[in-house]
Input
Amino acid sequence: MNTNLSRRTFFGMAAAATAAAAVPILTESQLAFAQRRRIARDIPPGAVRIDANENPLGPCSGACATMASLIPEGGRYDFELTQKLIDTFSAAEGLKPDYVLAYAGSSEPLHYSVLAFTSKDRSYVTADPGYEAGMYAAKVSGANIVKVPLAKDYSHDVRAMIAADPNAGVFYICNPNNPTGTMLETTAIDKFLANIPAHVVVVLDEAYYEFAVHFATLRKLQYSRSLEYLQRGANVIVLRTFSKAHGLAGVRVGYGLGPAELLGYCARMRNTFSVSSVAQAAALAALDDHPHIQSVVENNAIQSRDLSQGLLALGYGVVPTSANFVFCDLREDAANYADRLHKESIAVRPLGSWGAPNCIRVTIGRPEQNRAFLRAASVLKSDAENRSASR
Ligand SMILES: Cc1ncc(COP(=O)(O)O)c(C=O)c1O
Output
């Protein structure tokens, strides 16, 4: 063994590890994890946790039964399930199977896309406030992160995004946008794609796809033609997940969809075994259970209406949502507000770290959870009014 070489290699690796340790690689799910640990420590089981855009109805019964039945097979690698999941989805959506890769959630393909297509010379352009996870990957690739403020109605300002850097490595469009819940209609995305150079990669994050489709139908809007963009070979990577409408956030399964060549770059970083067989079987069962999805999106539409009306009645600003959460402008310090709710065993997400210190994001829960939140919000509002009256 060449000890000099191995020592150099070791020191090289140690230096790389130190450099990596200096980069804050925290995804929203890791931040949420830290916050959830605090919540789990501080508030009792059965508390109202409407802070992480989880599905309050959970997975369908078929997914639960499949997962339980697969536990005894947990000692084996399963090479067939991945292909079955890809084939089922691509056949249902009319995509070629090589346009689909399964991942452990949609965070993975988001990270890999940003790592693959941004660099110190190719920027990452995103909306502000917008979902943060891609920015952490862009920090790793050394890319310039260009945050483009949302338009006045809290939707993406696509024209300003293009103007910010027409030659970006990645344009990230989260549709509907997290945390504002705003939807870009098809015509806006068509225009956006028509106005950027063909070589630029657009990541269309459709984590809240099923909710958005339902809202679009209710409002007679056109939500997304993302799969058509893929069919015609546009440089687009679409992200979908089973974490939201399918209620499998903790199980970890999602897709990256895109031209085989683009997915190929991401696949180099992907671990073949990152999605467990249990997760893939649960995803297949979830795809099959249309009534469950229907009840999830209907509960969400009714409850988001009631929750939004309740918050508006308290005098807060509310952005009409197309997702499973509501963006609410409290016009007061949101961190402090969330701490006070926390004491009542209710967890919501204050948005200070997203550059919106007076705003919270409230995930649509079950009816009784939303009512509990509105009752507590009403008490906080009266307290605040009493305080200002006594000043
Ligand atoms: C917009 C968006 N994209 C991606 C994700 C990642 O979700 P997952 O990795 O669980 O699919 C989230 C999670 O909240 C999200 O809000």
Observations:
- The first helix runs from residue 3 to 22.
- Residues 61-288 form a domain with the Aspartate Aminotransferase; domain 2 fold (CATH 3.40.640.10).
